[in-house]
Every structure is written in C-alpha cells, then in structure tokens.
Amino acid sequence: MVAWSSGSLLNLAQGKFGRFDENAVKWLAAVGTSYGAIAVKSDSPYKTLDDLVAALKKDPSKVVIGSGGTVGSQDWMQTALIAKAAGINPRDLRYVALEGGGEIATALLGGHIQVGSTDISDSMPHIQSGNMRILAVFSEKRLDEPEMKDIPTAKEQGYDIVWPVVRGFYLGPKVSDEEYAWWKQSFDKMLASEDFAKLRDQRELFPFAMTGAELDGYVKKQVADYKTLAREFGLIQ
C-alpha cells in the first residue's frame, strides 16, 4: 500500500513517472483533502484577489511569489491559474521555489516574498496569530470551520479556481481482486467511523471519502484535467 496525493496525480499527468501512468496501479481510497490558498502578510497592500491580479497585470516582475516545489508543482499551478486569470504568461511571474509550507511562511513573514501559494491547513497557525491573511482559498465554497468561515473563496471573488489537495492510498497491480475487495471494505468501514473523523480533523483535513471504482474514475478524470492544464502552460507537448 502506498500513499498518494493530488501532487502524485499532477506528476502522472506530466509523465514524471516514466512508463507508469494512471492505469499502472489499483486506486484504493481517498481519505481526506485540504485546499490550496493564497497567503499574504497581515500588513500586505493586497486585500483581495482582485488587488493581487491588478498588481500582476501592472507588472508581474514586481510581485515576488513563493511556493513549495518547482515549476509544474501544485503550488506553481495555483499561481499559473491566477496568472491566466490576469491575462499574463505564467512564465513571466517572479516565482521563488521553496521547500513547503514552513519555508513559505518564514519567507513571507520575513519579507522575502510578497505572496505565498500554499495550503490552507499549513497557513492556519499564522492566520490565528494575526501574522498572515488568506486572500482566497481554492475550494468550491467557504470551509465550514469556525476559524475558516470568513475566508473567501476564489470562486466567490469571480475566479473559477478550485484546487483540492486530496490524500489517499493505492495498491500495486499484482494485488488480487479478492485482496483489493478486502482492503476496500476495510477502508469503507473506517471512513464511516467517528474515530476516523476525529483523526482526520486533528490533521486539519476535510471530508473526502471515496473508494473503488468511483475513486478510479475520479483519479483518471483529474489526471486528464491536469494534462490539459500542463499542455496549456507549456509543461508537456
């Protein structure tokens, strides 16, 4: 059994696993999700996503954006979608590749970057301390958590950007149908339990329970959608 995330699917879409594609394994279960987000320091002049887009339109080289991973990563794709909304080439962004949420927060709070393309869960301690603000979370609707309910989505601000960061598990291709069915049944039972819901909440994940054929269809659609984006942004042919 191997853990996967939406980042794994994005890498599959870009051919980063060589000859192995989305059909090479048996997709077992998705167990939760977080969502991408755009963060700024609390004293940033950018108060809304419109403010950021306006600044990018004026001069993208003046806005330093940091995120986890290099060009083609999930966080980079989030910035590319904002660039697309601003009508500019994502390659014109002033982008700094960092090592995940911790480095993004450090660079942002230290004034080394002006905008962080990140994950909502990674940002919450700094939001609650008053040091950072979220311009937009990339969820379909506002998140139903007391500390997140006032954070606007990109969609409600007029930007059709949704980026879930799903976590799950898959099995190898040689696992028998009988073994797969046993694991699926076990995950179905676990995902429906209150104990699991508590563990998921402790890890600041949101409900996203899917197994078996339904998950297989979801994964393959996501990979296809990511391939479309990757081609659009010049990441693959």
From TrEMBL:
InterPro entries: BUG. PANTHER family: TRICARBOXYLATE-BINDING PROTEIN (PTHR42928), UPF0065 PROTEIN YFLP (PTHR42928:SF3). It holds the Pfam family TctC. SUPFAM superfamilies: Periplasmic binding protein-like II (SSF53850). It comes from Pseudomonas taiwanensis SJ9. Belongs to the UPF0065 (bug) family. The lineage of its organism: Bacteria, Pseudomonadati, Pseudomonadota, Gammaproteobacteria, Pseudomonadales. This is C4-dicarboxylate ABC transporter substrate-binding protein.
